[in-house]
Amino acid sequence: MQTIFYARVSTCDQTLDHQIVQAKKSGFKFDHVVADHGISGVSTKLLERPEGKRLFDLLRRGDILVVRWLDRLGRNYEDVTDSMRKFLRRGVTIKTVINRMTFDGSNDDPMMAAVRDALIAFMAAMAQAENETRKAAQTAGIEAAKAKKDKYRGRKPTYSREQLMLVRDRLAMPTSISVISKETDLSRQTIYRIRDDVEGAERALELWGF
Fold first, then answer.
1. Between 3.40.50.620, 3.40.50.12160, 3.40.50.1390, 3.30.1330.80, what CATH number should domain 3-128 receive?
2. pTM score of the predicted model
3. What CA–CA distance (Å, rounded) separates 204 from 192?
4. Share of residues in the chain with pLDDT > 70 (%)
5. What is the third-level CATH fold of 150-207?
């Protein structure tokens, strides 16, 4: 049995090292790291990515696949659910760093499989909605940044887009500011500022071209 961490690192994401550190801080241990670099998650299917395709060759029954979030496994709702079900039919268990979700592919009980499929559909739909919202926000931010190119951009953000996304996700759960600070390597003051104005934090990244 092996545990593999899969990451997709696009131009808007943190580095691979940061994603690995976050996974380990959340308590995950893995034997191998498989990563696709410079690939858009909204336009490229998992099986069309060099290392994504390699996952299907590596994973076997009893293995564990760790991903930051379900959107790593496909470009949209259909691709994510299709990829997950292929892995689960092999007996692979999928775990997410965000929200610590577990999809157990080793359990063949029909009732458990039905519940699992329903949860996959729901979570994959959420992942696609988040991607679409993020894309729309990025487009709006880029347009705003172009319009204000010659204006004062304010304080340079001390956080990356990946850190902002993680803070936002953690704030949606009953998680203390201290725990979020430890997981993201951000100061408590920065997290409070993000909490009080998430949209402003997003705009600041766009204005600075992050």
1. 3.40.50.1390
2. 0.58
3. 15
4. 82
5. Arc Repressor Mutant, subunit A (1.10.10)
